[in-house]
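Sorry, can you check?
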Amino acid sequence: MNSPTTPSGDDRPPLHEPAAAGRLPDHRTMDRPTLARIAGRRPGGPGARPRLPHPATPLVPDPTWFARPESATSLHGVLHGARVAVLVQLLGPDRAFALAAPASCHDCRRRNDRTDAGHGARAAHWLTRYPTDLSAAFGHAPSPEAVTAVALHDVPHHASTPEQRAAYQQHRTAVDLLKAADALDRYRLPATRWWPDLHLLRPDGNAMLTALATGRPVHLLHLTRSLDAIRTSGHLRAFDRHRHALTRAEAHQVTRSVTDRVRAAAPLLDLMLAAAATGRTRPDAGPFLDQLAAAVTVMPYLGHLCFETAAEYLMLHSTSTATKNCAELGEMNNHLYKQLAFTAVDTMGALFDVGRFRPGHQRLLDLIDGIEPGLSQSAAAFVRDRLAHRFTATALTPAADATTFAFTGAGTDDLRTAAAPLLGQLLFREVRLLDRYPQLYQLFEQEKAAEAWTHWNGRRTALPYNAACGPKGEIGVNPVGPHAQVTVWTAERCTRGLLHRAEQVAAVPAPRLAPWAFSALRDRRDEDRWKNRAAALA
């Protein structure tokens, strides 16, 4: 479904030439030389095509809906709207069709093919004024969330007004879906500088977005919401609910320690906010990764993000035979990040804690090349950009403005307002360092586990984490899934290292925590280093 091309007799230069010179007309149509040039610059990958979850219904907007006749046949015209509607259906199957119909005409009120600020709001106004046109064509009238998504699709997060941010929070998923679908269709534009930056896509569903854009392997179950929703949202609620179980001295110790950690890591945290918010502040990747490694000892949460980002890089960029074989089965090559974890930290087998993943720049490149020679070529820049975005997306509250908030000088009240997810994670981890935590373990951890089970059941997720073995060898099963039926088997390993079921075991998953003695949740060496933290805060 390509954009309309100019007639063969047209003597205008190919569109990519004025694009390179910065002299594009207000309305643009595609030509065959430019299409060929775009096709020759398609992002690479191991060559496995993604398996799409379901067929999409073509939704082609009526040319008469467009503000100007020339707009209907331009780069943002009828066919662009139809492609975006298809991408919305592929990215968001839960609510796809209801959003896809309005998405097909998200650019119908454009006045030109430039930025044209406000064209989203004009299209949203058109949708609310003429809803019967849409319902007559597609059988769906525009819903409030769809109208909001169309209104905000052209508004950068950092430039939104308080009213727009409030609307975004109310209909966040729909806005993110339309923005992502619209961004993926930017690969048709004549200059690569206008193509989407995949590092800046929203965390949820990023693997699928990357696969659609580049043809890299993808496991479709990665579309389920990520661990971030559980890891960052429930901690502060659990801490606040049970904080009175702490003595006054313990509460002071926890709060003071968190404040010290934020103060020590603030220069790096603010650097990541600046890099993610505008994209213009990009530190040199080498010094950034070394600074990150030093900060992980103060704020282990950064080690989690660094490991997950490096794992993303490995799985998305590997071209090994094993990765290609996994891709043909619709799977990611999970062995890559397991090898990374156990190679990077010598004691990972005794206490699995990626909060201790802090390799630094050169060590990270050596680790990646040790797993797959030559793979580290673009790793440093990827980790820098992607980690800055992931930190900003998971550390700040949704309504916070990353362009104005700073961790430097921030107190606990400031963190509660602008960085509640990060504050909750830090407080929760700090409680685990208390001498009395074995007594508090059930109280705090059961609360967080219940948050996870509720999250999974609300999304009908019986097998979280894709039911794939994680780095520790565990398999994700929701123990309170109302419709799940689980059969347990022992396994034997063959000469190829593969597991084969052997004997069925009469076992039923139960929503109970493992006893404290079997839960490795802290390392005394880390506690001692932090208690003697004068050097880190100097």
Observations:
- The CA atoms of residues 83 and 185 lie 7 Å apart.
- Strands lie at 488-493, 499-505.
